[in-house]
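Private note to self, pasted from the team thread so I don't lose it. Backbone tokens:
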């Protein structure tokens, strides 16, 4: 049976361009002075220029992925002050690697509206009451709902107070333009856009400095992250980082609604990514749906992929005030570079059959 993969927000399949770039990547240590070393260095620097082209004026530090880039960004040292004089504010719907707070001991959560957008009035009041300098971390788009956040407004609020804005752009990179986020630091991850797993980057506004490295050692990556660069993965990342036009959200929503007029689409009132639909039908259980779709050859997920593989209660839907019973039915369909019209039609046909059987059982 041909599989239909609609879980690109968890991870996109490796694009052929990334596979080719990785296979062709030179061996050798990029810090060596001989020809092999210089070839490896050239591959790393070519990829750095490709990633840097995402947002002009920023330096690129390669990391092991989005999680490490988020952790590196969340440190009081970027503000040039003592930890006691700095505060971290993050939205309540951030990825766990941001909610964990990096080097900060305390994290203050900025609430979101029922549509899943950060509440600007509340953010203004909370940042206005901050005691010290601030780092604000706001994702460009949410991995569960696809809701796009007002990063420029938060950048202004943070910068008015001499603070910094970090943007986790993992779900937007390669899907929408990201040069106007207004951020001082930006996180990207290769595997969400068809690059290899285990490589990402922190983009840092020119002139920003952090004297405390994430890893000490040989001084690679501007001294911020020691360790011999993962040349093949970095080359694979560089090969796919250019923007990929993506669609399908409306087509997926049409398939869902055609059979289930009672479906609730989360974040519907807000601007959203063009590839993501998070929805629930009252009374349906996401866990059962994921299994039924999987057995029929379709990969989707129940909200965010949890490390344990289990389905946990979504902190994103809880922050949006969604009732736990409805949240338990939340199914995420996320398309990507490999998605075709045939995939969406197949999803629609299977979904329609699952829904038909469910309504028959319910009526019995
Ligand atoms: N931030 C967001 C919004 C994500 O969706 C993810 C992926 O799960 C990450 C960060 C973490 O990225 P990585 O898997 O590269 O560590």
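Design output:
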């Amino acid at each position: 049976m041909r599989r239909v993969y609609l879980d690109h927000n968890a991870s996109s399949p490796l694009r052929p361009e990334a596979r080719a770039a990785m296979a062709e990547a030179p061996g050798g240590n990029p810090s060596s002075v001989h020809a092999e070393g210089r070839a490896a260095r050239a591959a790393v620097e070519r990829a750095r220029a490709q990633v840097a082209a995402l947002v002009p004026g920023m330096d690129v530090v390669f990391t092991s992925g989005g999680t490490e880039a988020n952790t590196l960004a969340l440190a009081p040292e970027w503000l040039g002050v003592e930890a006691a004089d700095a505060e971290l504010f993050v939205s309540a719907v951030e990825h766990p690697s941001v909610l964990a707070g990096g080097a900060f001991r305390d994290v203050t959560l900025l609430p979101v509206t029922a549509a899943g957008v950060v509440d600007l009035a509340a953010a203004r009041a909370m940042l206005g009451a901050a005691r010290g300098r601030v780092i604000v971390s706001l994702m460009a788009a949410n991995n569960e709902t696809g809701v796009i956040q007002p990063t420029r407004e938060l950048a202004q609020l943070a910068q008015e107070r001499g603070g910094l804005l970090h943007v986790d752009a993992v779900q937007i990179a390669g899907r929408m333009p990201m040069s106007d986020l207004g951020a001082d630091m930006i996180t990207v991850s290769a595997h969400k856009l068809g690059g290899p797993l285990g490589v990402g980057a922190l983009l840092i506004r020119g002139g920003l400095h952090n004297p405390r490295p994430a890893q000490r050692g040989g001084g690679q990556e501007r001294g911020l992250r020691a360790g011999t660069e993962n040349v093949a993965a970095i080359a694979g990342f560089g090969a796919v980082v250019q923007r990929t036009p993506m669609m399908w959200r409306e087509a997926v929503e049409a398939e869902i609604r055609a059979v289930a007029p009672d479906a609730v689409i989360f974040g519907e009132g807000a601007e959203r990514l063009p590839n993501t639909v998070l929805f629930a039908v009252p009374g349906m259980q996401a866990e059962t749906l994921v299994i039924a779709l999987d057995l029929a050859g379709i990969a989707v997920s129940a909200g965010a992929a949890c490390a344990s593989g289990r389905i946990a209660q979504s902190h994103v839907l809880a922050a949006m005030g969604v009732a736990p019973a409805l949240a338990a039915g939340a199914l995420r369909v996320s398309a990507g570079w490999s998605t075709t019209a045939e995939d969406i039609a197949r999803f629609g046909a299977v979904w329609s059959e699952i829904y038909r059987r469910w309504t028959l059982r319910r009526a019995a």
